[in-house]
Design brief:
The chain is mainly alpha-helical and 85 residues long. 55% of the residues lie in helices and 5% in strands. The chain has a two-stranded antiparallel ribbon with strand order 1-2. It is rod-shaped, with a radius of gyration of 24 Å. The chain starts with 8 loop residues before the first helix and ends in a 6-residue tail after the last strand.
C-alpha cells in the first residue's frame, strides 16, 4: 500500500475542502451524477488523511541491532547488545 507523504497534508486538506464545496454546488444545481463522483473522490481524500493520522501516531524507533565494527577487519564485529558501554 502506498502511504501519502506527510508533507502533503495541507494539500490534501485543501483538496478535501474544495471537494466539499463542489459537492454542495452540485447538490444545489441538481447534478446527481457529479455529486456521486465527487463523493467517491472525497472518500479517497479522507482515507489518505486518515492514513496520515494513523501513520504518524504509530511511528516509533526500532533498534535493528546491527553489528558495530570496532577494527579494520570484520572478525572484530560484535552485536551492540554484547558490547560494554
Amino acid at each position: 500500500m502506498l502511504w501519502p507523504d506527510p508533507a502533503q497534508r495541507e494539500q490534501l486538506v485543501e483538496i478535501r475542502d474544495n471537494l466539499l464545496a463542489r459537492i454542495a454546488e452540485a447538490e444545489r444545481e441538481g447534478w446527481l451524477g457529479e455529486v456521486e463522483g465527487l463523493n467517491v473522490s472525497l472518500a479517497g481524500a479522507e482515507e489518505k488523511l486518515a492514513q496520515l493520522g494513523r501513520n504518524s501516531s504509530s511511528r516509533s524507533v526500532v533498534d535493528l541491532d546491527f553489528p558495530v565494527i570496532s577494527g579494520p577487519d570484520s572478525s572484530t564485529c560484535q552485536p551492540r547488545s554484547s558490547q560494554a558501554e
